[in-house]
Specification:
Radius of gyration: 32 Å
CATH topology of the largest domain: Immunoglobulin-like
Helix content: 10-25%
Number of domains: 4
Largest sheet: 13 strands, mixed
Distance between the termini: 92 Å
CATH class of the largest domain: Mainly Beta
Number of strands: 29
Strand content: over 45%
Number of helices: 9
CATH architecture of the largest domain: Sandwich
Length: about 475
């Protein structure tokens, strides 16, 4: 005892066995040991009985994840090494379990058969490896959830039919030495319940927001860095494989996206990506996207995202995400300040400015722009930006205010004027020739080639485009 103090007394439970009789038992839990100090609980109980403790000041045991290392050993397999810490009574428990297995099915077909290997809980530290062998039907099952997943990400999820069933639970020293005494225990979960709870979680953590999308046009594509703030959870996630996905237009891949960096350990989260165009499909997609955008239609109509591949893991490749309609309201109408207008006689043309406010988090290093408008082989007008490479500010840069200076020069002679005016009545021979260069002056052939294919769409819709342009352009003094 010692000086009337409380003696350190632990309750120890060990060598757990069960079976048909004392002589016929299973010893698979021999290594499971519970050691709990009794004094704190005796003192608390004494306080309650004596009226010393009023109300409940208990809190949930602290739990934190300190390791999530994900690997993709095969086309249908993921493996996650997990490390965590737990406080409270969990820190007083010691458990070792070499193997735990179960089966998860959906719609009557096998989905994934997880196994937990080398589970250890000691001194409040948890270590385990979670292996996830997905079954042949998994890709189709995940693809069938494309609509509710899109709704979950961008709007409000509706009713989701179907169930998932968890059963065939077994545990032991290894898969070949496992006991299946819980194999007939089954748990049925409604898919709708899973999605509704996920929706509730997202709604409760609505502080998550995209702060910055920094994009730079390069000689081969686009480099992008995305910053997301408001994350209440730091995730020590390590992906031991490359991550790629694709953007689709009318079902055909027009860009490939390679994730180049990912940091979720603290807020703000950061994600880096390299975007490469699939050239012929990219031109077709740009035709549709620009035409819709210039007419204030949904610019992302027919655009989807999918084809997610994690290293060699392809089970997610059938999941197709449909983005919401583009938020055109984030861009203010374009203003052309008349006090910036300067006429030139030689060559005949003018300098002018275009002003707009970008309320979105998107900033873009566009580079230098040179556009030649041609009627057949005749040069009609050349438009160039002035004042160095174009950078489109986002809402956090100069309040999103942008002023872009241009020069427009007529390139034809007086004898060509009448034929050009006549061609405008039926502009089938009009086209653009773009010259696009990066901020460092390097050509961007991928963008030039795509933009040079656009005029057919623009000129075939010239009247609604001009009508919309006049509606969204203001002239100021």
């Amino acid at each position: 005892m010692g000086n009337g103090g409380s003696q350190n007394v632990n309750l120890v439970v060990s060598k757990i066995a069960f079976g048909g009789s004392a002589g016929n038992v299973f010893h698979i839990l021999d290594k499971v040991q519970f050691s709990v100090p009794l004094v704190p609980y005796i003192q608390k109980l004494t306080g309650i009985v004596g009226g010393i403790v009023g109300g409940s000041n208990s809190t949930a045991p602290a739990f934190s994840i300190n390791k999530l290392d994900v690997s993709a050993p095969g086309a249908n397999d993921l493996s996650v090494a997990v490390g965590a810490s737990i406080g409270g009574i969990g820190s007083k428990i010691s458990v070792e379990m070499p193997y735990i297995g179960l089966k998860i099915s959906a719609g009557g077909a096998g989905f994934v058969y997880p196994t937990i290997n080398n589970f250890q809980l000691s001194n409040g530290n948890i270590d385990l490896t979670l292996d996830l062998p997905f079954q042949p039907a998994a890709k189709q099952i995940i693809a069938s959830l494309s609509i509710p997943v899109s709704q979950l990400l961008f709007s409000t999820v509706g009713q989701v039919p179907g169930t998932i069933v968890v059963n065939s639970i077994e545990f032991g020293a290894s898969p070949s030495q496992a006991f299946d005494i819980a194999a007939k225990i089954g748990l049925e979960i409604q898919l709708n319940s899973v999605f509704q709870k996920a929706q509730a979680y997202i709604n409760a953590h609505s502080s998550l927001q995209v702060d910055d999308i920094n994009t730079v046009l390069t000689t081969t594509g686009i480099q992008a860095t995305v910053s997301v703030s408001g994350a209440s959870l730091a995730v020590p996630l390590k992906m031991n494989f490359p991550i790629s996905l694709s953007g689709y237009y009318q079902g055909k891949a027009f860009i490939t996206i390679q994730v180049t960096s990912m940091s979720l350990g603290q807020s703000p989260w950061a994600l880096g990506a390299s975007i490469t165009p699939v050239q012929s499909e990219f031109s077709q997609a740009l035709n549709g996207i620009l035409s819709n955008s210039l007419q204030s239609k949904n610019a992302l109509k027919d655009v989807t995202v999918g084809g997610v591949i994690l290293g060699s893991f392809t089970v997610l490749s059938g999941l197709i995400i449909t983005p919401p309609e583009s938020a055109l309201s984030l861009m203010s109408p374009i203003t052309v300040p008349l006090n910036q207008l300067k006429l030139h006689l030689i060559p005949l043309g003018m300098d002018f400015a275009a002003s707009l406010v970008n309320r979105s988090p998107l900033q873009v290093d566009v580079g230098a722009v040179d556009i030649m408008i041609k009627d057949g082989t005749t040069d009609v007008m050349e438009i160039q930006n002035l004042g160095g490479p174009i950078h489109l500010n986002n809402v956090h840069q100069n309040g999103g205010n942008n002023m872009i200076l241009f020069n427009a020069s007529l390139k034809f002679n007086i004898l060509q004027l009448i034929p050009i005016i006549a061609s405008l009545l039926n502009p089938v021979n009009f086209h653009f020739v773009f010259s696009m260069k990066t901020s460092s002056g390097q050509p961007m052939p991928w963008l030039q080639d795509a933009l040079n294919d656009v005029p057919d769409t623009i000129f075939s819709n010239i009247l609604p485009i001009l009508a919309n342009a006049l509606k969204n352009i203001n002239f100021s003094i």
